[in-house]
Amino acid sequence: MSASFEKGYNALKEQVDSTVAAFFSSCVHCGMCADACLFYTETGAPERTPIHKTEPLRRVWKQEYTLLGRIGKLFGIGEKVTDEMMEQWETLVYDSCTLCGRCTMICPVGNDIAGMIRKTREGMAAAGHAPPGLIGATKRAITIGSPMGVKLPALQAQIAHVEKDSGMKIPLDVEGADYMLLLSSMEIMNFPEFIDAVAKIFKHANVSWTISSEAFEATNSGIQIGASDIAAELVQRIVDAAAKLKVKNVISPECGHAYMAIRWDGPNLIGKSYDFKVVHILELLDDLRQQGRLKINGRLKERLTYHDPCQIARRGGVIDEPRNLIGMFADNFVEMPETGKMNWCCGAGGGVSSNERADEIRLQVFQRKKDQLDAIHVDGIISACSNCRIHLEDGLEEYHMEIPLLSLTETLAENLEES
Amino acid sequence: MTETELLTWVRGPGFQIATIIFVLGIMLRLFEILMLGRKANLAEAKGSEMSSGLRTVFSRTIPDASTFKRSAFTVTAGYIFHIGLFVVIFLFAPHILLFKDIIGFGWPALPSTVIDATAVITIITLVIVLVHRLRDPVKRFLSNFDDYLGWFVTILPLITGYIAFHRIGMSAPSLIAIHILSVELLMVVFPFTKLMHMFTLILARWYNGAISGYRGVQS
């Protein structure tokens, strides 16, 4: 990963397409995206206005792809992108944006601002102006296979634990299975209950599945830092493993950006459609529900809400499925004000949680989530992303709130009829 | 140059030059955008790009309730001056005559007293919008020369039109000539400023809706 300003500039040039040009041509500096961004609403810092974070990309578009900009460049006038400028933008692009996409939903002229910030990161990473925490995670993902440094023996140890505790067999490297499950490092290390829950549900619903020992990691630091080549390599490992095991479907686990990476970005990164289908675990569970393959034993009386992970809901399209599933076991479900595609981010997605430098601000902007939760007084928060879950727990602790966090998959598994 | 000669020039060659720059400029800008193209999406679609894109072109005109609450001033003022501009430009009888001259057909006009009142409201709103831009921390921070130039060339024809309508200070031909000149300035500047959003927002909204719709989300 040798980085230079020239590489960064060229990477930005490569990011410009007709969507970017239409978006920049349409911005009227109305400032409404600021009001949609928790990094602005909770800090009041105008430089954190979403569209401002895309300034390096805008300047490249203007100077390279518009007549006026090119004439200006010829005469040495106009706003240039410099290495110093990119360095200055680093904290705006990485520490103050989770790529949550709420700005994209409200922009009155229709700019996909989150998409533009994602593209800006490609230039920033290539120029070497990415946070050390994310660079480290990305290097570990490439060399070790996991951003948190989780190797196969660690997974095998967790599987052994789960098998011992539950008496179920966790299928590893089973050729011809219908589904290949991916996991996030966070699940393997912090929430191995997830593996147990999936095994229980799949046994209950008679789903043929496996985990690959060669590609079990679902997360993709490449798409967080903005390095398409690395992101593509990580996706390719999964594609190769799926081909080797001849599976028909790959399951993306309870992790937001992993779903974005494997479901929506993946084929475009490797330049080829898949030979298998990618489903989010919630999509698969909702499918099983529709087929009548999930039998629930008893219902929960607690007042519960659901936190939509941005990359799964607003940016990923999985919005109704979790609600259908929660409806199976929850008697007292309540939505947060502004929910589904308009939900507020927890504050730690898009690589922010891997970036220690952003620890303070991610907890500061959690105030937004606190306000949402204060409005509904719940006994539990269900979510479907282990990164959201860790950060929600952090935030609740910081603000002295005691609300338990539940994984949707795990909660469902706990309420299944014994089979 | 007498005032009659001036009026003849602005109505003739002046208007032609401005129209050519306006039309070619817009075509150039749209060409600059569209020629860049975009890559085909290789991920399996969960929804339709086309219908979601078309829906967003219209639906993005109306903010959702919580967004309206947060950006109430921007949205309300934006509505007032955009509708005001539309009414004053397209529903004033003399303007309709001009359009009829160019495109061959006209449409019913609003009474000039209504136009007059609308012009005053629009001018006042644009002044308030400028003051807000100068005072609001986010807007002031984001604003550059383009924002102020765009504002200036938009309010100028409204003011010169208002003065011409009321024949304040000068003779009618001079006032009309000045009004038309201010419109020509707007037309010449239009394609190269943020005023282009009038056309490009259709593309931007379509792309926005298409990107979301492909993933099964209505944006």
Overview of this protein structure:
The complex is a heterodimer of chains A (419) and B (219). Chain A is of the alpha/beta class and 419 residues long. Helices cover 53% and strands 7% of the residues of chain A. Chain A has three domains: 5-130, Fumarate Reductase Iron-sulfur Protein, Chain B, domain 2 (Orthogonal Bundle); 140-288, Glutathione S-transferase Yfyf (Class Pi), Chain A, domain 2 (Up-down Bundle), CATH 1.20.1050; 296-414, Rossmann fold (3-Layer(aba) Sandwich). In chain A, the strands form two sheets. Chain A has a four-stranded parallel β-sheet. A four-stranded parallel β-sheet of chain A has the order 6-5-7-8, with helices on both faces. In chain A, helix 17 (256-270) links the parallel strand 3 (249-252) and strand 4 (277-280). The longest helix of chain A has 18 residues, at 228-245. Chain B has one domain (3-214): Up-down Bundle (Fumarate Reductase Cytochrome B subunit), CATH 1.20.950. In chain B, helix 1 packs parallel to helix 9 (172-189), helix 6 (112-135) packs antiparallel against helix 8 and helix 8 packs antiparallel against helix 9. The N and C termini of chain B lie far apart (56 Å). At the A-B interface, helix 2, helix 3, helix 9 and helix 17 of A face helix 1, helix 3, helix 4, helix 7 and helix 10 of B.
